[in-house]
Amino acid sequence: MNRPASPSFRHKAVDALTEGEAKVELAALADEIAHHDRLYYQEDSPEISDAEYDALRRRNAAIEERFPSLIRDDSPSKKVGAAPAEGFSKVRHRRPMLSLANAFDESDLREFVAGLRRFLKDLRDDPDLPLETVAEPKIDGLSVSLRYEQGRFVQGATRGDGTTGEDVTRNLRNIKDVPETVTGVPAVLEVRGEVYMTRGDFSAFNEKQQAEGLKVFANPRNAAAGSLRQLDPRITAMRPLRFFAYGWGELNEPVADTHHEFLQRLQGWGFPVNPLLARCRDMSDMIAFYREIESKRPTLGYDVDGIVYKVDRIDWQERLGAVSRAPRWAIALKFPPERAETRLQRIRIQVGRTGALTPVAELEPVTVGGVVVSRATLHNEDEIARKDVREGDTVRVQRAGDVIPQVVGVIQDKRPADAEPFQFPHLCPECGSQAVREEGEAIRRCTGGLICPAQAVERIRHFVSREAFDIEGLGERHVRAFWEDKLIQSPADIFRLAERADALRRREGWGAKSVDNLLTAIEARRRISLDRFIYALGIRQIGQATARLLARVYRTYENWREAMIAAADPQSDAYRDLTNLDGIGPSVAADIARFFAEPHNRDVLEDLEAMLDITPYESLVGRESPLAGKTIVFTGSLGTMSRSEAKARAEALGAKVTGAVSRNTDFVVQGADAGKKADRAAELGVTRLSEQEWMELAERR
Ligand code: IVH
């Protein structure tokens, strides 16, 4: 679906709008904003930046402020905070969910304590007054806020940006550690804590995922986050999630004088509180606790990434307050990453969905901080060379925080005599196509595109997606299943499915009706506009906007294909024309050239051409284009678009572009250094437009 058109007075100041214009623009804005909301919330694929989106909303608000009588029933301003149809709705935290300042060594911790003493005058004046802290393990999961009203769990939210999180109430209800009702609690009680997955549960869960061909997670934290943020709470229910409570948000009455007492309350009410905590009277207690937990870390059963120290007295916490997004009364002292040594059996090259070749170290399984690791990332080609990692080497592996296990370095003494430096392949291990690395890029990519099995499913999914061929009934699940059963191996196969209708009807879960529906949906798309077709090919860096630009400029498929093949030569006119287009630089041109250089891609194109009717870009003519039927002449050089783009744009708007000014000319667009043609226009009384005025008319989207 194309983006709704915005009216040509979009660039006018709100103060200068007539009431009629305002009315038209408010209607357009309602459409446009709804369109972007849908892309953002339902499809997770926004087309414009947050800043552009905000600008649309601001413009809508400004026009409404000037013309309150024009506010529409479906105005976006009435839908602020509206529940997105499929995503999570947002929850504004009554008290912000803060994060923690970090300390990395003992001296940072000393500085933290010294700072507290300087801040609190009573402590500064009396160095003997003890400053008690509570030390707790920092659980590596994700924080949530649980709201209880009259003892009943009513709402649960993720942290989000600290001010607004996502409503995951239904998912949290499926976690056994989260009590549904509690007794003896304040009427309003918000409990904050960490949702996590134990190491044992994580390993078993990942094995199951792998066996079923589903997503495998890098670490327990990611698995916990991915499991909690499931749109279908039944999925969350099947995931082994746990919860530890460690703090509070809104409370309608105070419940304790100290943090330690608060934790005891929580426990008494039935919330799980981590039993490993210590009340520290001084620095040596604090350090001792850190060392104790560090030594227990491999056997804890869940990931902890440090120790959190909190000022125990709540009145002091309140006086200390917060700086930016972290409380002044707490700090996290981080643990170093957990490491282990093992043998690297093989370096395997994995091809990602976008064709990126990633080296993965296959390891003799080893326990790193309680999790068995058998694979680690080697990042890229340069990294392997820099660390001189070879197959057969004994390597040091680490797990740190959020990241996939990494190979830190090689133990040189243990290198086998026959170990050879690793040769990074220049051919894709999946399909044999060239794998190239662009200058300045760290990643080598397969150019096999549509024929590379590693990329094919994702590419076909893109090909049929809403903004491309928009084939209903061919979702990811079906694309994958059809690919595996060899019903669809390349995009053109989609248009041959009708020949395999019998095979389709025999598939489980496919009735005659659903097969007919699918085939009808496919038939309806044999006719496709050039912009969608270009976008559907999934050429790197060619998003919808660039696809439209190309379609507008080259108009027909044949024209475009010829020009793109010719543009492979950087000395050619075709290359110059292409890179003159606004938004298409050498890097995009190189990606296009590479796509066409790959024989497989050309085969796919040929195959498709024979089956499709690719129509020129749908012009905006008919949508009240101010240029429809006009004759226009460009003169001088334009600062914002090339001559060929200006011409294409004018034609798309229904104008005829000519080279000479005559009495039949309606407009002359004057760029810089306009010469005789401008004089002639003045003589004949032809309307002359500045580049700015032209831009407003041409209204580039
Ligand atoms: S207290 C106002 N205590 O660490 C202080 N946080 O880096 C709020 N975390 O977002 C946090 N264990 O997700 C606190 N025992 C603990 C924690 C803990 C883990 C997480 C929490 C927070 C993050 C900050």
What are the main properties of this structure?
701 residues, alpha+beta, OB fold (Dihydrolipoamide Acetyltransferase, E2P), D-amino Acid Aminotransferase, Chain A, domain 1, 4 domains, 7-stranded antiparallel β-sheet, 26 helices, binds 2-(butylsulfanyl)adenosine
Write the layout of secondary structure elements.
Layout: H1 19-42, H2 50-66, E1 90-92, E2 101-103, H3 106-119, H4 121-125, E3 133-139, E4 142-149, E5 152-158, E6 164-166, H5 169-172, E7 188-196, H6 199-211, H7 220-228, H8 233-238, E8 242-251, H9 259-269, E9 278-280, H10 283-296, E10 304-311, H11 314-320, E11 322-323, E12 326-327, E13 330-334, E14 338-351, E15 356-368, E16 371-377, H12 381-387, E17 394-399, E18 406-410, E19 435-437, E20 444-446, H13 453-464, H14 476-484, H15 491-494, H16 501-505, H17 512-523, E21 527-529, H18 530-536, H19 544-554, H20 557-566, H21 573-580, H22 586-597, H23 599-611, E22 613-615, E23 631-635, H24 643-652, E24 656-658, E25 667-670, H25 676-684, E26 687-690, H26 691-698
Parallel strand pairs: 2-13, 21-22, 23-24, 23-25, 25-26
Antiparallel strand pairs: 1-6, 3-9, 3-10, 4-5, 4-7, 7-8, 10-13, 11-12, 14-15, 14-17, 15-16, 15-20, 17-18, 19-20
Helix pairs in contact: 1-2, 13-14, 18-19, 19-24
The protein binds 2-(butylsulfanyl)adenosine.
2-(butylsulfanyl)adenosine binds next to β3, β8 and β13.
